[in-house]
Amino acid sequence: MEDLDGPEAGRIRLDRVLGRIAHELNAAVHYARYKDGEVELVAARAAPGAATADPANFRIGAHAHASGKTLLALLSAEERREYLASHPMVPFTPYTLREPAQLPLLPGPGPQRAAPITQYQEYELGLVGAAVPIVLGADLAAVAVALPLSQAHRLTAVAGKLRARVGEDLVTAAFGV
Fold first, then answer.
1. CA distance 118 to 124
2. Residue 148: CB atoms within 10 Å
3. CB-based contact 96:123 (threshold 8 Å)
4. In the chain, fewer beta carbons within 10 Å around the N or the C end?
5. What digits encode the pLDDT tens for the residues 16-60?
6. CA-based nearest residue to 124, from 40, 58, 38
């Protein structure tokens, strides 16, 4: 019988949920969170034609990928300033945002209902993505999809499905890690 408690069981549940979402949406999916002043990639599942985010660049690229932009949009102005002071907005591609004022902001109440935040080749050339926030109390997270540029026409629909998919199973798995 499988142990359903503890961080390892939480990671297994999260991996299963992300795997189902990646399969349903035919898109790479990843889950990130803001913890102890850092944006961290927790789990990811690839899809045909769309690899997962590069863990090495994930923290420094929060301003460029959809999940990082979503997490930064959830922070207070002071938290965002502090984060960007220690993680400058470096250009990954010619399309990468370079000014903090260009970053999106999400309204405080009801961020789960917020429109997905997108990126078009800002993190990696040939890749587009969208992310939606997951908030539980003071815990901030985001789940994101990534598609190859050749499938950019699917991004709005896939992001809408992802947004609808943020439910109890995903929230329970996400914060059980």
1. 13
2. 17
3. yes
4. N
5. 889 889 999 999 999 999 999 999 999 999 887 677 777 778 889
6. 58
